[in-house]
Amino acid sequence: MQLDHLRKLAENIGNVTADYMLEIEEFRNETEEVFFCWRHKENDEWNIIVELTKDGQLIHFYIDEQKKTNETIKLPEEKLEELALSFVTKHYPDADVVFTFEEWKKLKNGSYRLTYVQKALELPLPHTGFYLTITPAGRITDFRYDGQARKIIEPKSIASEALMKEKMMKQVTMNLEIIEFSKELYVDGDDSYKLVYEPELVTYRYAADGSEITHDDFDEEDDEHVEKTERLVRPDISADVDTLLGFDENSFSKIREQDLGTEIGTVWRLNDADMKADQDDLSLEAFFARRNDGTLKMRHHRETGLLLGSFSFLERNGTLNLSFDECKKLAYQLLFQLYPNADKYFHYVAKNHDDDDESNPLYHYEFRLCINDFPVRFGAARISVNRTTGTIDHYMGPDIKVNELNDINTTPAITEAEAISTYINCTRPKLEWQLEYKDNEPAYYELIYIEEFKTERGNGAYVDAHTGQVIVRKF
């Protein structure tokens, strides 16, 4: 089909009104699919996305859900499920026959999700079938069609669960670490910090016949690598955060600000930035160029103003040639500016930089949050320093409230052996299909055994190092 015809078809599917303007239109030669995106003229965060095959078959449809807050109608669930399936069969008449019903559930935002999948050996094949989201008023907001599996390799034999449990549990170990017991992620979570045991299996995946899974691209050196950390030495700090980032507000203009809940995201563009993208170019590459060229993006904590992240899209090429250690000192300066007691909380993750790409002007540094030498999950800070300018081009802070880590009891009340026993009692081998990829070969499905750590309350994540109870995920 001609692109103009596909665009009109997509506009009809997405019910695109005059309030929206076309922002992205791209034909992808490698997949022979076309991608359209319309943005609301008065609200950058509202958009409509439609993806079609070259023949006009719908692959993906999405419309921003924020406007559904105006909906007052609430249809019965039976009617919603009927409307959802009607939408699917309009585009794929046999979809409800080819695929098997998997789930109809209510989402946290009040909408409903319908999912159908393809099965083999009575087990679902991931990334097959379709899903659809519908609001209580019957408005379709999200649809994706993944279709049928192209290649399935069925096992010649399947090992028993008893044999697999013996294999899997033989070499279980437990690692002590600190987690944020998040209300959002864990059952009964209270956002406090806990010392936990995390299970680790020497071999975490087995083929259905019981053999260990190995791949050509598996790097044994990576598997044997032991992370080395060093304690921080407080630097002589001479520069403030903005100077270290190369940010002078007088030289930039704020072009976007976004409410991210507990965070505020801002985008600054250099006043004399060279905008290379053609405004009439609707390709995805041009879209990102228009949004990113000449910008510095930052995230700050809403209440404290603490810098949580910074990413530079500026083309910075200076005349300096700083060494790895000189750049490391600049990374230390930023960390201590943001966290004055950084040496109390962070360890530097030592690395061999001899293999760094000399054409890349950035040196990268990682700092790990540790309390009494126990690592804090999601407690890493990553800093990239431009050796030609001495500026910090990228910073990603820890997703942890560092000032709340002081009162954690880091003495476990149960032993590793007791934690392993709890884990083994709550774990069983589980068969599932996994989509595998190999270079220069079509993707295929392989049946594998994984361990399922589960209690009556849900899927387990850790064993509490003080109470011995299993910490259960919400999802």
Write the layout of secondary structure elements.
Layout: H1 3-14, E1 20-28, E2 33-40, E3 47-53, E4 58-63, H2 77-91, H3 95-98, E5 100-106, E6 112-120, E7 123-134, E8 140-147, E9 152-153, H4 161-169, E10 173-181, E11 192-200, E12 206-207, H5 220-224, E13 229-231, H6 241-245, E14 252-259, E15 263-270, H7 284-292, E16 295-301, E17 307-312, H8 324-338, H9 342-345, E18 346-349, E19 362-371, E20 374-386, E21 392-396, H10 416-425, E22 427-436, E23 444-455, E24 458-464, E25 470-472
Parallel strand pairs: 9-23
Antiparallel strand pairs: 1-2, 2-3, 3-4, 4-8, 5-6, 6-7, 7-8, 10-11, 11-24, 12-23, 13-18, 14-15, 15-16, 16-17, 17-21, 18-19, 19-20, 20-21, 22-23, 23-24, 24-25
End-to-end Cα distance: 42 Å
Average pLDDT works out at: 90
Binned, the helix content reads: 10-25%
Number of strands: 25
> Major sheet, described briefly?
9 strands, antiparallel
Molecular shape = globular
Query: How large is the radius of gyration?
Result: 26 Å
Strand order of the largest sheet: 13-18-19-20-21-17-16-15-14
Number of continuous helical runs: 10
What structural class is derived from the secondary structure elements? alpha+beta
Low-confidence stretches: 216-224
- Provide the β-strand percentage band: 35-45%
